[in-house]
Amino acid sequence: MKKIYILSCLMFIILTASFQNHAQNGVVVDKNGSAISEKQQKALLSTRLEKSPIQGTFSSFGSFLFAFNDLAIHTDHKEVGGIKLGSPFPDGYKPTWKEVFDTVAVQTQTTWSYDAKRNYWLFTPTQNSTSFSISIADGWTSQNQGIYVGYKPPTFPVGMDIYQLGSYSAEKPAEEAKLFKKIQEDLAMRFVKGFIPNIKPKDMKIVKVNEADALYFEASSPKREELIWRQWVFIKNGKAYAIVSSLLKQDKHLLEDVQSMIKSFQVK
Q: Are residues 43 and 81 located together in one domain of the fold?
Protein backbone atom coordinates (compact mmCIF):
# COMPACT_ATOMS: atom_id res chain seq x y z
CA MET A 1 0.00 0.00 0.00
CA LYS A 2 2.89 2.35 0.82
CA LYS A 3 4.37 1.83 -2.65
CA ILE A 4 1.01 2.52 -4.30
CA TYR A 5 0.62 5.72 -2.25
CA ILE A 6 4.10 6.96 -3.21
CA LEU A 7 3.47 6.17 -6.88
CA SER A 8 0.14 8.01 -6.77
CA CYS A 9 1.83 11.07 -5.24
CA LEU A 10 4.51 11.08 -7.94
CA MET A 11 1.88 10.80 -10.67
CA PHE A 12 -0.02 13.73 -9.16
CA ILE A 13 3.13 15.88 -9.01
CA ILE A 14 4.01 15.12 -12.64
CA LEU A 15 0.50 15.85 -13.90
CA THR A 16 0.17 19.02 -11.82
CA ALA A 17 3.45 20.34 -13.20
CA SER A 18 2.35 19.64 -16.76
CA PHE A 19 -0.96 21.42 -16.26
CA GLN A 20 0.89 24.58 -15.26
CA ASN A 21 1.57 25.04 -18.98
CA HIS A 22 -1.19 26.67 -21.02
CA ALA A 23 -4.32 24.50 -21.52
CA GLN A 24 -6.99 25.23 -24.09
CA ASN A 25 -10.08 23.06 -24.74
CA GLY A 26 -8.66 20.67 -22.20
CA VAL A 27 -5.58 19.93 -24.30
CA VAL A 28 -2.21 20.83 -22.85
CA VAL A 29 -0.08 23.15 -24.95
CA ASP A 30 3.58 23.92 -24.29
CA LYS A 31 4.05 27.66 -24.80
CA ASN A 32 7.79 27.56 -24.04
CA GLY A 33 8.95 24.94 -26.54
CA SER A 34 10.49 25.74 -29.91
CA ALA A 35 9.35 24.43 -33.26
CA ILE A 36 10.90 21.23 -34.58
CA SER A 37 12.31 20.84 -38.07
CA GLU A 38 10.78 18.71 -40.84
CA LYS A 39 13.53 16.17 -40.28
CA GLN A 40 12.66 15.97 -36.59
CA GLN A 41 8.96 15.68 -37.43
CA LYS A 42 9.61 12.72 -39.72
CA ALA A 43 11.84 11.07 -37.13
CA LEU A 44 9.17 11.47 -34.46
CA LEU A 45 6.33 10.19 -36.64
CA SER A 46 8.28 7.06 -37.60
CA THR A 47 9.17 6.23 -33.99
CA ARG A 48 7.55 3.03 -32.75
CA LEU A 49 5.88 2.71 -29.37
CA GLU A 50 5.90 -0.39 -27.20
CA LYS A 51 2.09 -0.37 -27.27
CA SER A 52 -0.77 1.89 -28.24
CA PRO A 53 -1.16 4.84 -25.82
CA ILE A 54 -4.65 5.80 -27.02
CA GLN A 55 -7.14 6.22 -24.19
CA GLY A 56 -9.76 8.57 -22.73
CA THR A 57 -11.06 11.61 -24.58
CA PHE A 58 -9.03 13.64 -27.05
CA SER A 59 -8.42 16.22 -24.32
CA SER A 60 -7.37 13.75 -21.63
CA PHE A 61 -5.24 11.87 -24.15
CA GLY A 62 -3.53 15.14 -25.03
CA SER A 63 -2.79 15.80 -21.36
CA PHE A 64 -1.40 12.28 -20.99
CA LEU A 65 0.89 12.66 -24.02
CA PHE A 66 2.23 15.97 -22.81
CA ALA A 67 2.89 14.74 -19.27
CA PHE A 68 4.52 11.44 -20.17
CA ASN A 69 5.84 11.88 -23.73
CA ASP A 70 6.52 15.64 -23.86
CA LEU A 71 4.32 15.67 -26.96
CA ALA A 72 1.55 18.23 -27.51
CA ILE A 73 -1.59 17.69 -29.60
CA HIS A 74 -4.28 20.34 -29.83
CA THR A 75 -7.58 21.28 -31.41
CA ASP A 76 -9.22 24.66 -31.74
CA HIS A 77 -12.63 22.98 -31.60
CA LYS A 78 -14.18 22.17 -28.23
CA GLU A 79 -16.37 19.38 -29.61
CA VAL A 80 -13.27 17.48 -30.76
CA GLY A 81 -11.74 17.70 -27.29
CA GLY A 82 -14.63 15.76 -25.75
CA ILE A 83 -14.64 12.83 -28.20
CA LYS A 84 -13.86 9.47 -26.61
CA LEU A 85 -11.05 7.47 -28.19
CA GLY A 86 -10.31 3.77 -28.43
CA SER A 87 -7.34 1.83 -29.71
CA PRO A 88 -7.96 -0.44 -32.73
CA PHE A 89 -4.48 -1.98 -32.57
CA PRO A 90 -4.22 -5.65 -31.53
CA ASP A 91 -2.14 -6.48 -28.46
CA GLY A 92 1.52 -6.81 -29.30
CA TYR A 93 1.53 -4.39 -32.23
CA LYS A 94 3.92 -1.46 -31.89
CA PRO A 95 2.37 1.49 -33.77
CA THR A 96 4.31 4.52 -34.96
CA TRP A 97 3.29 8.00 -33.84
CA LYS A 98 1.98 8.60 -37.37
CA GLU A 99 -0.28 5.56 -37.08
CA VAL A 100 -1.49 6.75 -33.68
CA PHE A 101 -2.25 10.22 -35.05
CA ASP A 102 -4.00 8.74 -38.09
CA THR A 103 -6.41 6.65 -36.01
CA VAL A 104 -7.08 9.57 -33.64
CA ALA A 105 -7.94 11.65 -36.70
CA VAL A 106 -10.31 8.97 -37.99
CA GLN A 107 -12.10 8.75 -34.64
CA THR A 108 -12.38 12.53 -34.23
CA GLN A 109 -13.17 13.13 -37.93
CA THR A 110 -10.25 15.50 -38.33
CA THR A 111 -7.08 16.00 -40.30
CA TRP A 112 -3.80 16.64 -38.53
CA SER A 113 -0.62 18.60 -39.24
CA TYR A 114 2.24 20.17 -37.35
CA ASP A 115 1.71 23.83 -36.41
CA ALA A 116 5.21 25.29 -36.28
CA LYS A 117 4.05 28.68 -34.99
CA ARG A 118 2.43 27.15 -31.92
CA ASN A 119 4.64 24.05 -31.70
CA TYR A 120 2.03 21.32 -31.50
CA TRP A 121 0.20 18.83 -33.66
CA LEU A 122 -3.10 20.39 -34.68
CA PHE A 123 -6.28 18.37 -35.34
CA THR A 124 -8.89 20.17 -37.44
CA PRO A 125 -12.42 18.92 -38.33
CA THR A 126 -12.90 17.83 -41.92
CA GLN A 127 -15.99 17.08 -43.99
CA ASN A 128 -14.76 13.66 -45.10
CA SER A 129 -12.47 11.86 -42.68
CA THR A 130 -13.00 8.35 -44.03
CA SER A 131 -10.13 6.53 -45.71
CA PHE A 132 -12.45 4.76 -48.16
CA SER A 133 -15.31 5.41 -50.56
CA ILE A 134 -18.38 3.37 -51.53
CA SER A 135 -21.49 3.82 -53.64
CA ILE A 136 -24.45 3.83 -51.21
CA ALA A 137 -27.44 1.74 -52.31
CA ASP A 138 -30.70 3.50 -53.16
CA GLY A 139 -32.71 4.43 -50.08
CA TRP A 140 -29.88 3.72 -47.64
CA THR A 141 -28.48 6.42 -45.35
CA SER A 142 -25.07 6.72 -43.71
CA GLN A 143 -23.75 8.21 -40.49
CA ASN A 144 -20.07 8.69 -39.70
CA GLN A 145 -19.34 7.65 -36.11
CA GLY A 146 -15.58 8.07 -36.39
CA ILE A 147 -14.06 4.64 -36.04
CA TYR A 148 -16.96 3.23 -38.05
CA VAL A 149 -19.52 4.43 -40.59
CA GLY A 150 -23.03 3.02 -40.21
CA TYR A 151 -25.27 2.34 -43.21
CA LYS A 152 -29.00 1.87 -42.66
CA PRO A 153 -31.59 0.59 -45.15
CA PRO A 154 -35.07 2.12 -45.32
CA THR A 155 -36.85 -1.02 -44.02
CA PHE A 156 -34.67 -2.27 -41.15
CA PRO A 157 -33.02 -0.63 -38.11
CA VAL A 158 -29.53 -1.91 -38.96
CA GLY A 159 -27.78 -2.91 -42.15
CA MET A 160 -24.03 -2.55 -42.54
CA ASP A 161 -21.11 -0.92 -40.70
CA ILE A 162 -17.59 -0.29 -41.96
CA TYR A 163 -14.92 -0.11 -39.26
CA GLN A 164 -11.61 1.68 -39.86
CA LEU A 165 -9.21 -0.29 -37.70
CA GLY A 166 -5.90 1.49 -38.06
CA SER A 167 -2.89 1.69 -40.36
CA TYR A 168 -0.05 -0.81 -40.05
CA SER A 169 3.54 -1.23 -41.13
CA ALA A 170 6.33 -3.72 -40.56
CA GLU A 171 9.68 -2.76 -39.08
CA LYS A 172 11.26 -4.90 -41.81
CA PRO A 173 9.60 -4.99 -45.27
CA ALA A 174 10.24 -8.73 -45.56
CA GLU A 175 8.01 -9.29 -42.50
CA GLU A 176 5.04 -7.31 -43.83
CA ALA A 177 3.00 -10.23 -45.23
CA LYS A 178 3.36 -12.25 -42.02
CA LEU A 179 2.49 -9.23 -39.86
CA PHE A 180 -0.57 -8.29 -41.91
CA LYS A 181 -1.87 -11.87 -41.79
CA LYS A 182 -1.60 -11.95 -38.00
CA ILE A 183 -3.30 -8.55 -37.61
CA GLN A 184 -6.08 -9.55 -39.98
CA GLU A 185 -6.72 -12.75 -38.04
CA ASP A 186 -6.64 -10.97 -34.68
CA LEU A 187 -9.15 -8.37 -35.88
CA ALA A 188 -11.42 -11.00 -37.43
CA MET A 189 -11.49 -12.97 -34.18
CA ARG A 190 -12.39 -9.79 -32.30
CA PHE A 191 -15.76 -9.73 -34.08
CA VAL A 192 -16.71 -13.44 -34.14
CA LYS A 193 -16.56 -14.11 -30.41
CA GLY A 194 -19.88 -15.45 -29.18
CA PHE A 195 -21.12 -16.83 -32.49
CA ILE A 196 -19.39 -20.21 -32.84
CA PRO A 197 -17.33 -21.70 -29.98
CA ASN A 198 -13.70 -22.49 -30.77
CA ILE A 199 -13.81 -21.02 -34.29
CA LYS A 200 -10.38 -20.30 -35.81
CA PRO A 201 -9.30 -18.01 -38.67
CA LYS A 202 -8.63 -21.09 -40.79
CA ASP A 203 -12.37 -21.87 -40.58
CA MET A 204 -13.24 -18.64 -42.39
CA LYS A 205 -13.55 -18.23 -46.14
CA ILE A 206 -11.31 -15.97 -48.21
CA VAL A 207 -13.11 -13.59 -50.57
CA LYS A 208 -12.01 -10.49 -52.47
CA VAL A 209 -12.81 -6.92 -51.38
CA ASN A 210 -11.14 -4.15 -53.39
CA GLU A 211 -8.74 -6.84 -54.69
CA ALA A 212 -7.64 -7.66 -51.13
CA ASP A 213 -8.06 -11.10 -49.52
CA ALA A 214 -10.76 -10.73 -46.87
CA LEU A 215 -11.58 -13.23 -44.14
CA TYR A 216 -15.31 -13.84 -44.48
CA PHE A 217 -17.58 -15.29 -41.81
CA GLU A 218 -21.32 -15.64 -41.37
CA ALA A 219 -23.53 -17.18 -38.70
CA SER A 220 -26.96 -16.92 -37.16
CA SER A 221 -27.31 -14.68 -34.14
CA PRO A 222 -27.11 -16.70 -30.89
CA LYS A 223 -30.37 -15.07 -29.75
CA ARG A 224 -32.21 -14.72 -33.06
CA GLU A 225 -31.71 -17.58 -35.50
CA GLU A 226 -33.38 -15.67 -38.32
CA LEU A 227 -30.83 -12.82 -37.98
CA ILE A 228 -27.64 -13.45 -39.99
CA TRP A 229 -24.31 -11.87 -39.03
CA ARG A 230 -21.77 -11.43 -41.82
CA GLN A 231 -18.28 -9.94 -41.68
CA TRP A 232 -15.42 -9.21 -44.04
CA VAL A 233 -12.02 -8.32 -42.50
CA PHE A 234 -9.10 -7.27 -44.67
CA ILE A 235 -6.05 -5.05 -45.02
CA LYS A 236 -5.56 -2.86 -48.08
CA ASN A 237 -2.61 -0.50 -48.58
CA GLY A 238 -1.63 -1.10 -44.96
CA LYS A 239 -5.09 -0.05 -43.68
CA ALA A 240 -7.31 -2.51 -41.83
CA TYR A 241 -11.08 -2.69 -42.26
CA ALA A 242 -13.96 -4.77 -40.96
CA ILE A 243 -17.27 -4.67 -42.82
CA VAL A 244 -20.09 -6.18 -40.77
CA SER A 245 -23.75 -6.71 -41.57
CA SER A 246 -26.82 -7.93 -39.65
CA LEU A 247 -29.87 -8.77 -41.75
CA LEU A 248 -32.85 -11.08 -41.53
CA LYS A 249 -32.39 -14.33 -43.44
CA GLN A 250 -35.30 -13.52 -45.77
CA ASP A 251 -33.98 -10.05 -46.69
CA LYS A 252 -32.52 -11.10 -50.03
CA HIS A 253 -32.88 -7.61 -51.53
CA LEU A 254 -31.04 -5.92 -48.67
CA LEU A 255 -28.28 -8.53 -48.89
CA GLU A 256 -27.93 -7.68 -52.58
CA ASP A 257 -27.57 -4.01 -51.58
CA VAL A 258 -24.85 -4.87 -49.07
CA GLN A 259 -22.99 -6.98 -51.61
CA SER A 260 -23.26 -4.18 -54.17
CA MET A 261 -21.85 -1.61 -51.72
CA ILE A 262 -18.98 -3.91 -50.76
CA LYS A 263 -18.22 -4.46 -54.44
CA SER A 264 -17.91 -0.67 -54.85
CA PHE A 265 -15.60 -0.29 -51.83
CA GLN A 266 -12.35 1.52 -52.62
CA VAL A 267 -9.50 2.56 -50.34
CA LYS A 268 -8.50 6.15 -50.99
A: yes
The tens digit of pLDDT for each residue in 2-22 reads 443 333 333 333 333 333 333
pLDDT band at 196 (very low <50, low <70, confident <90, very high): confident
| 142 and 105 belong to one structural domain | no
38/105 same-domain check: yes
**What is the tally of structural domains in the chain?**
2
Do 121 and 184 belong to one domain? no
Confidence bin at 94 (pLDDT 50/70/90): very high
Report pLDDT digits (tens) over 40-51: 999 999 999 999
Number of alpha carbons in the 13 Å side-chain half-sphere of residue 30? 22
**CA–CA separation, 143 and 84 (whole Å):** 17
Range of the domain at 108: 2-125
pLDDT band at 226 (very low <50, low <70, confident <90, very high): very high
